[in-house]
Write a structure and sequence with these properties.
With 133 residues, the protein is an alpha+beta fold. The chain contains three helices and four strands. Strand 3 and strand 4 form a beta hairpin.
């Protein structure tokens, strides 16, 4: 019986206090919602960056172990590793080729970079792992 009275007393004291906190927060609800939106966006950005870093690590591993040859053309590379940071046309062995640059998505001056060269018809003809050490 005493336990029920104590529980009832705690509920009677804490319930109005909880309501006061909500009433005090109401004038600042816009600011609180803005902070929550920033937090949610930051979490989404962190997940995106983490995903992009994992994709780059997979590409780097594929280049290092030679399994990049399993992705013989531009479409296969795009499907597996996404868009490169930079694409450009260069002359190589008397033909115009596309050169794609991949690097860590966050590090502007990344140590590890991957260059992929594609023939005019889209076949992967050369791949390079470049380090800036």
């Amino acid at each position: 019986m005493a336990m029920k009275k104590r529980t009832a007393l705690i509920i009677l004291v804490l319930f109005p206090l909880a309501g006061c906190m909500q009433v005090k927060a109401l004038p600042h609800m816009d600011e609180l919602l803005t902070l929550k939106a920033y937090s949610d966006e930051r979490d989404a950005q962190s997940k995106w960056v983490e995903g992009q870093q994992q994709i780059f690590e997979r590409l780097l591993s594929a280049v290092k172990n030679g399994s990049i040859k399993n992705f013989p053309n531009r479409d296969a590379v795009l499907a597996e590793f996404g868009r490169p940071v930079l694409t450009e046309k260069i002359e190589q062995d008397g033909q115009s080729v596309s050169r794609w640059l991949y690097r860590n998505p966050i590090q502007k001056f990344a140590i590890d970079r991957v260059l992929l060269h594609f023939s005019p018809d889209g076949r992967l003809i050369k791949f390079e792992h470049i380090t800036s050490l």
